[in-house]
Amino acid sequence: MAYWLVKSEPDAFSWDQQVANGTEPWTGVRNALAAKHLRAMRAGDRAFFYHSNLGKEIVGVVEVAREAYPDPTEEVAQGKAPRWCCVDMRAVGAVPAPVTLAAIKAEPALAELALIRQSRLSVMPVSQEHWVLLCRMGGWAAG
DNA sequence: GCCAACGTTGGC
DNA sequence: GCCAACGTTGGC
User: Fold this and answer.
1) What are phi and psi of A115, to 5 degrees?
2) A104 CA from C2 C1′ (Å)
3) Average pLDDT for residues A82-88, to the nearest whole number?
4) Is the pTM of this model over 0.90?
5) Residue A9: nearest nucleotide (C-alpha to C1')
6) How many domains does chain A have?
7) A8 located within any domain
8) Which residues touch strand B (CB under 7 A)?
9) Quick one: which residue's CA is nearest to C10's C1'?
10) pLDDT for A21-46, tens place per residue?
């Protein structure tokens, strides 16, 4: 199983909404690298749900419920092929102690995390080592 | 509100 | 195909 981190601005789509909806299409990704990561996701993969801008912290864990399919929010011009994709994410649970960006930056072992290195990327892989460490920092026991 | 990073667009 | 201009993201 692979691990990921996905970002959302809570103004646009928050963790509370994800929990309320249960399973939700993760749409609106319009970046080639982020889309590539979406396509690499497999059902059952887990991802951290990160609040960007407001909060700037990992607040929950989601699971890939459906693998990549065409993003219904893309406006496809006549005669053009759809370009973007989305996946469905299912809420697994809230992180007991949200892991802030400041805490991540303060942890030398996380210096290579894409969240730090490529701040604008909205969907990124997380290594197993980083996943375990971030779970520990957040008091997430389930792994 | 500002600015750095960086992806995209369009002129050549 | 290059590169300057521009737009967007996201931290501060």
Assistant:
1) -55, -35
2) 39
3) 92
4) yes
5) C10
6) 1
7) yes
8) A 30-33, 118-120
9) A53
10) 999 999 999 999 999 999 999 999 99
Give the bases of strand C that a protein CB approaches within 7 Å. Answer: 8-12
3-state secondary structure of A88: strand
Half-sphere exposure of A72 (CA within 13 A, CB side): 5
Span CA (A9) to C1' (C12), Å = 16
Mean pLDDT of all residues in A54-59: 95
Three-class DSSP category at A133: helix
From the CA of A65 to the C1' of B6: give the distance in Å: 31
For chain A, first and last CA: distance in Å? 12
Distance, Å, A72 CA → B10 C1': 28
Residue A143 inside a domain? The answer is no
Show the domain range for A34: 3-72+83-137
Q: HSE-up of A5 (CA within 13 Å, CB side)?
A: 29
- Would A20 be classed as within a structural domain? yes
Distance A77 CA to B10 C1' (A): 20
Tell me, what CATH number does A59's domain have? 3.10.590.10
Beta bridge partners of A4: A47, A125
β-sheet bridge partners, residue A60: A49, A94
